């Protein structure tokens, strides 16, 4: 029996970037980073960060993984854009619940704004993906760097090469075209920056 051919190094790197910088990873990390930035005590970090993590990452990602296990979704990146509406809509509903709880818990404006950014960018991606396969990887990566730059200043601008790397990985793996990647970045980054600035 012939052994399977190894993937070229470029394809392995693309797969690594796609997994490490996936939307689920970034929407898990961003609220925690923001909560750590604005929390006044470990208790606040646990309360605000835990709430954001549960409703912005754990529930939405769990819905996708459940769909994959049940065979309703092709993969955890939901490569078939026709399958994206339901998990994205459930994810948005979860984020909306998280926003209400954070408001009740009097979370700082910066953290609240980050969660609104996640909701708005997610809603925009859901709308576009109803008709066209926009790159959610690129949209979320661009939004993440835009928000980090506003939270931490110019040093966070060093994240833009990673956004480009994510875009390259999606094209290299043939999950998206360059127009889909560029459109995702062009949607996510300015939308995230505008929403964040409007709320802080």
Structure description:
By secondary structure, the protein is an all-alpha fold. The chain has one domain. It is built from eight helices and no strands. The chain has helices at residues 9-20, 23-38, 42-69, 85-104, 109-129, 136-152, 160-172, 178-199. Helix 3 (42-69) runs antiparallel to helix 4, helix 6 (136-152) packs antiparallel against helix 7 and helix 6 packs parallel to helix 8 (178-199). It is globular. The termini are far apart. The model is unreliable at 1-6 (pLDDT under 50).
What's the short story on this structure?
The chain crosses the membrane at residues 45-68, 88-105, 111-132, 139-160, 180-199. Keywords: Membrane, Transmembrane, Transmembrane helix. The protein has 200 residues and is mainly α.
